[in-house]
Structures are given as structure tokens and as C-alpha cells.
Amino acid sequence: MRPAGNARHRPPKTMSNDPERGYRPAAVEQKWQEAWERDGTNTLTADELRSAESPFYNLMMFPYPSAEGLHVGNIYAFTGADIHGRYKRMTGHTVFQPMGFDAFGIHSENFALKVGTHPMELIPRNVANFTRQLRRTGGMFDWQHTVDTTDPGYYKWTQWLFLQLFKAGLAEHKEAPVNWCPSCMTVLANEQVIAGACERCGTPVEQRRIKQWFFKITRYVERLLENLDHIDWSETTLKAQRNWIGRSEGGELRFPVARRNGDRWEPTDQVVPVFTTRPDTVFGATYVVLAPEHPMVDVVTTPEAQAAVRDYQARTAATDLVARQKADKTKTGVFTGGRCINPATGEPVPVWIADYVLMEYGTGAIMAVPGHDERDFEFATELGLPIVRVVAGEGQQADTPLDEAYTDNRNGRLVNSGRYDGLPVDEAKSAIVNDLAKEGLGELRVNYRLHDWCVSRQRYWGPPIPIIHCPSCGAVPVPEYDLPVELPAVDDFRPDDSGVSPLARVEDWFRVPCPECGGEARRETDVSDNFLDNSWYFLRYPSTDFEDRPFDPEITRQWLPVDTYIGGNEHAVLHLLYSRFTTMALHDLGHLDFEEPYIKFRAHGLIIREGSKMSKSKGNVIVPDPIIEDYGADTFRLYLMFLGPFSEGGDYQDTGITGPHGFVHRLWESVVPKDGELPDTPPDPDVEQKLHQTIRQLSEQIPALQYNTAIAAMMEYLNVARAGGRRPSRAEVEPLVCLVAPFAPHVAEELWQRLGHEGSIFDGANWPTFDPAKAAESTVQVAVQVNGKLRGTVSVAPGTAEADLVALAKAEANVAKHLEDVQVRKVIHVPDRLLNFVVG
RNA sequence: GCGAAAGUGGCGGAAUUGGUAGACGCGCAAGAUUUAGGAUCUUGUGGCCGUUGGCCGUGGGGGUUCGAGUCCCCCCUUUCGCACCA
Prior knowledge:
Blueprint: H1 13-16, H2 25-39, H3 46-51, E1 55-60, H4 72-90, E2 94-96, E3 100-101, H5 106-115, H6 119-136, E4 147-148, H7 152-167, E5 171-181, E6 186-188, E7 193-194, E8 197-198, E9 206-215, H8 221-226, E10 232-233, H9 235-245, E11 248-261, E12 264-276, E13 287-290, H10 297-300, H11 306-318, H12 321-324, E14 333-341, E15 348-354, E16 365-368, H13 374-383, E17 391-392, E18 413-414, H14 425-438, E19 442-447, E20 453-454, E21 456-457, E22 467-470, E23 474-477, H15 507-510, E24 511-513, E25 520-523, E26 527-528, H16 530-533, H17 537-540, H18 553-559, E27 562-568, H19 574-588, E28 598-604, E29 606-609, E30 612-613, H20 624-631, H21 633-642, E31 649-652, H22 658-671, H23 685-701, H24 707-721, H25 730-740, H26 745-754, H27 772-775, E32 780-786, E33 789-796, H28 802-811, H29 813-819, E34 824-830, E35 834-839
Parallel strand pairs: 1-2, 1-27, 3-4, 10-28, 13-15, 27-28, 29-31, 32-35
Antiparallel strand pairs: 5-6, 5-9, 7-8, 9-20, 11-12, 11-14, 11-19, 13-16, 14-15, 17-18, 21-26, 22-23, 22-25, 24-25, 29-30, 32-33, 34-35
Helix pairs in contact: 2-26, 20-21, 21-22, 23-24, 23-25, 24-25, 25-26
This protein binds one RNA strand of 86 nucleotides through helix 9, strand 12, strand 16, helix 13 and strand 31.
């Protein structure tokens, strides 16, 4: 298969002896995939990892190995990332590009339940199929450093990670109201609840109180937010993270609970704290609203109101979150009979409960300012509560009626607010909070939307949480030498409605002695969240050669943080935020010397077809295998990248693939002519100029992931080299073989070999260098306009002076015609581009 | 509702960031070569008209400019996030 001898350039006569002169993608691709495998072209040994001089860690989001197999979206993402990696390699980097499988989690488990096959049987099958398909796509994957999150050798370290966080006080076991999906029968993180429904199955989520493990990600919230200013990520992703963290500045104001004394209301020691971003409007707080499940409800509710309050609480609990969180539904609530003292006015205000106030945000209680908050306005209008104006905008007075909430928080001044009257809104905010603070009735506060990360799952298909509950010692970590806590193989892995994990049914597994006191104890029977598995996998890849440590310090210093991470924006918040947190925590615990895992992240777009996302329900899914069979992976890769900008995705059109297919054929035919031989003559100057312009363009656009225009440039170049049936020479096509290699690696290897080279085109920095002198245009077309309208063009040497250009332009018949009988008032000259006569 | 991005031929999409709109590809038309090929090659292809020329044309309307797909204002549409977050 490999050419004999060590000549870099073998004479083309060897090719005329070759019976295989036609391009047969399947044969070429199989040949090179086998060669890469055999020669270890894409793998790095432990020594190579340790000693690489210019390491480049090219990471892409590893897939969940579904039973359906690799879909076009996977191939699209991986191809875009693979091109990046291959380019880096051809420009002299040692590229580490691993691939793995994120095979734990509800997704896999649900599918296993559906088809009635045990995941331990199903997953290896899927992984094998994925691996086969991934090889076929021609990705430069290092299969010696692969990761499977369900492998005990991997999840041993996932459990280790849990224990590190536990020992650092970053894991907490507490009873909490949680999102419960009645269909998946499991707890979901807030992030997995989309508009009140389960992200996976769309079932409305209920609320339950269960003991859960939480990671205290909120301790890192400020750093997670601040670092966003310094990392090189897609703008859309940064924005999504900022939104998700949801920082808002405001104040916590305390409303003392009031007690009736005769006909007066007096403050008690108990307070209802509220969070507000508008402390300036506190004089307009005419009532207080608690979330129905707020602990203070029982304190403020009067005996007369109790029945109504209980009833409302019960109804709320029964209402699922979808219905509850519909912003457009009419607001409801009931009066508790109790009152609080408005800390600013000293007046008693009624306390209500209403389901539009959410327990999870802020303090679970609000001061309602109907005059200046739309939701409060709506509620007050519906229930006949007083509305007071405390901010007046331009042209408004203290008594200007409010027929809707006035929410402008920039231009108003305070009214009806005692000694704060006349202050602008922003000044009043701090003044009021500071004054209340002196009385212990308030303080500045920053609130976040982000919650602690709930990591326990009452499911089967995940790594058991490595904790042993002992009646006398409490929650005891499993000693590291006992890791992994292996997931037992059990036939009945179905979750049930009890809220406990299926593992809680496996008594001989969970009954263990306490590692500390030796007494009877019980394993934690929850498994950990899938997002924990993938929050650290990139640390594992380069260190899979080691079984005795999660990641080797030296290797990690050499390869991390990840140089480029490419993936879908659907993971913009969850996976990317959690893995940042994990990395930060490991950094603080002394395991890593960096705190941000990915230097550069780029989100890719989505492939759509017939105007919408590919989905089974729409029946517009493209199955990759037959396309690869018909056209070859090289053509498929080119086509996917040619559809549109990689960052934006593209519209898959079935007939379009013939374009790139023809391009590959023409390239092949140019290097391996059907008849005769590849000319070894010097390059044509015009073709050479175009070549160097193309090299320049690709060298700029590939690192920027602008693949669609890069491919267009290569097509353009080949069109020039073959214009008018011309036969290009070796010097003209050989560099193109290198340029196309990241996109179409198999055909590039084959042509490289047929050009007489030994070994892989990817070994050695074979990316062509461009010569600016050769790329320079010898003549430029200058547009000639009269009053901004194109009237002709002149062809001149670059840098031609304006005076010469004017003379040439005026000599153009059509330009002259438009300059007749008019006076040239002004000439606009853009060197080498345009000349505009302004006439009048 | 809020936020972001985007609207360019029959279609996917280009356009050096204010300077010849429609690169490249699909599709279509005509031809060459093959005539088992989704192979190859040539030419044409935004619309309209008086066709060596001209007018119109980048969702709609206004504006800035010698010059606007690109900048500004208003409106419409689509897609994607967030969604009673106080």
C-alpha cells in the first residue's frame, strides 16, 4: 500500500502504471482509515503527550451514544472541530483530539426502559456503533485516549470529584423543594426545567420536598460572572451565562410583622425580609405579598383568614409549575388578615399570599408597589388594593393619576415620599437603603437567579454517590481506596413514584459497615447528575494512561486548559457553567493551576432541513451512512461545511452535495489525469497569483471557522487552474491538496501519496506558506462612477496616481459621454478601488 | 412580554466593514464528450427596456453621504434564548 523508496517526489510514471486511475471514495477512505489506525497517525503515546513542544488541545463536546446512531448534527459539529484540529496540526502543532461517550444519564436510561433492554447491555452496543460511524467520518480522533463515563475506571474519579467537593464543604445534603418530573420519576435541576416542564419529556413538573445533595456553586457566582469578561468565548454564549447567573442589585428591606393593639398596629420582633431592585419606591409599598409556601405565612395569618389561606396553599401546591408560571394568567391571591409595618412610612400594610411570588427567588416575599411595578399593578387592580404614585416622570405631578404602572427607573423624581421628595430615582435608592440600614431595617443586597446545583438523582443509571450514612457518624465519605462504588447490575432498574432510587431496593448492596465506626450503615442510594460526569471529562482525556489518578499533574500542566472547545449552544449554560465551577473548585483545592477550563469556546450553528430542525417527528432526518456510502465522507464533510457559516448552521438541501462532489472529482482528475501525465512545468503566473491569494484566505478563514467561504475559495482556485479545459501542473495542484486536507483528509492523503510523498500529509507541517509578493495583484480594476453611478472600469497597475486615473477614465467612451456638458465639481478617489466624478 | 440575531436571485449563501451587489455552489438553459454511470468540459443565468446602452434592484418607509446590503430613526417578519426573577 505504501510506496517503496524514500524519494519525496516520485516520477509520475508510477501513476500511469496504476490501474486505479478513477476516484473511488469508498476504497480510498477505507484504505486511509486503516492506515491511520495501523500507523497510529492520530494517536499520541504517553511519552508524546509528555514531551509535545507545541501542544494544542482540540476539544469537542462528546456525544451521548444514542441507539439511533450518529446524526448529521453530530457529524456537522465534529467535522467543524476536526478541520480546526487538522489545520493546527498542519501548521506545526501537536494536536490532541480525543473523543468519548457521555453515556450515563436519564436519556440513556429512558431509552433502555422504552426498549426493555438493560443499559449495561445497550450502551456498549451503542458505543461500538458510534465508534464505527465516527471512524467513517474521518475524524482525527485519538482512540487511545477515549473516555466512557459509564466505565468504572472513569466514574471512580467522578466519585473522587464528589468527595473532594464534599470534603471542602461544597456539597450539602438538605431537604429542599425540588422539581419532580412525574413521568421520568426523578428530581430535576432548575436548569432542566424549561418553562415549568421537564426538559426531556415535556411533562409538567411538580414540587416535592426531598433530601438532596447540592453543590454550592453560588459561592462562586461572582467569579463565574467576572471571568466571563476575560475568556474568549462566543458572544452569544457569554450572554447566555450572564443571563443565567442573573445578577441584580437592590436592597433587602425588612417589614416588621405587626400586632394589633386596640385600634393600633405595633411592630413585633419578627420581620418579613423582601428583596427589591427598587428600594426608592418603598413609600408606595401598599401591601406585602408572600409566596404561598413562605414560612412566615403561618405567623401572619389571622384565625379568621386561616381557612382561605390553607385552601389557597393547597391549590397552589396542586398546580403544576407550567400553569403557575404562565405570566399571562390572571393573578390570584388571598389576604392573610395580618399586617406588616412599612419601614419607611411606619404605616401598617396588609399581607397577602399569591402564587405570582416565587419562593425560589430573593426572599420569597415582596413589597408590592402597584404604582411602579406591572405585576403589582395588575394584582392591586384586580383585588382593589390601593395604588400610590411615588415617582413622577417628566410632566407628571404627585397627583397625576396612574392608569398603568410607571416603571421608568431613570428619569423620575420621588413624590409622596416624605423627605425624599424631589430626589432622582437612583439617588433615592441608595439614600433610602442607607437610612433604613441605620435602623436595622434594610441593607444593600445583590441577588442572583443562579441556585445551588442539585446533583442527586433518584435513578439507576449513574455513578452512585460515594457516601455512607451512619446513624452515629452521619454522612461519611467512602474511603478513596474503596472507590469506585460500583453500580450494581440489577434487573429491575425502573424508577418508581416513591422518590427513592432503585438502588434503595438492593439491600445487599446498600447495607455496609460505617467506614468510621464500623457500625451498621447504609450507602447513599442516589446517583449523581449526568452533568457531573461531563463537568470534568476534558481533564481525564490526556491522562487515561493512568489508572491511579484522575489527571496527572504534569500532563495536565502540559495540555490544559483546553485550547479550543467547539460545541452546541444548547449547552451554553448547564454543562459550560458546571464545568467552569468544577474547574474553579479543583483549582482552589490545589488540584489545578488554572481556574477556567476552556481558553476559547466557539458555538456552532444548527443544521436545518426544509426550514426546520431535523427531527423524527417531522420526518426530515438525514441518515449519514448511505450518503457516506454514495459520495464518501470527504464529500459529505465538504458539503456540510459549505452549507453556510459554521457558527450559524445551514439549510441542508439534498441536491447540493453534487457541488462539493464535483469539486473533489475535479481535484482528483487534476492530480491523476485520466490520460497522460501530470505536467511538471512551472506554474502559470496568473494561476500562481490566485494560488497565493487562496492560501492567504484559507490561512485566515480556517482559524476563524469560516469554512464555507474557505471552500468557495478553493473551488474558485481550481476553476482558475482548470479554466478553458487547461491542465494544471504539479506546482499548481500540489499545494491545493494540502489546503483541502483538513476538509477532505482521505482524498488528500491518497493524492499526496500519488504525488510521490511518503507517510501521512498530516505528519510534518505541510500547510503551504503564502508569499505576499506572489499574491499581489499586477493590475486592479478601478470602478469609474459619475455621481455615484457606475459608468465604466479601468484596468491599471496598483497604486496608479489619481491624475493618471482621471485621464484614463475620461478616455473611456461611456464615461466621457456622462461628463459632457457638465462641470466636474469634485473627484473622489479610493486608491485601487474607485474613482467618482461628482458633477452638477 | 423582555433580550439577541437575522431578513440579499428560483434555492443555500458571498460582499475587503461606507466604495463595481449577487463570489462559490445548487437548480435551470444550450452545446461538447461520453453514451451503464450522482463522472467531465464549454457557454449563459437578478428583473425590465429601445440591448456596444440604459433604468430598477439587498423586508417596508424615511434620513445621513459624492457614494448605503453595510451607518441613523420608525415599522413589518422570522429564528433563537429567557420568561410573573420583584
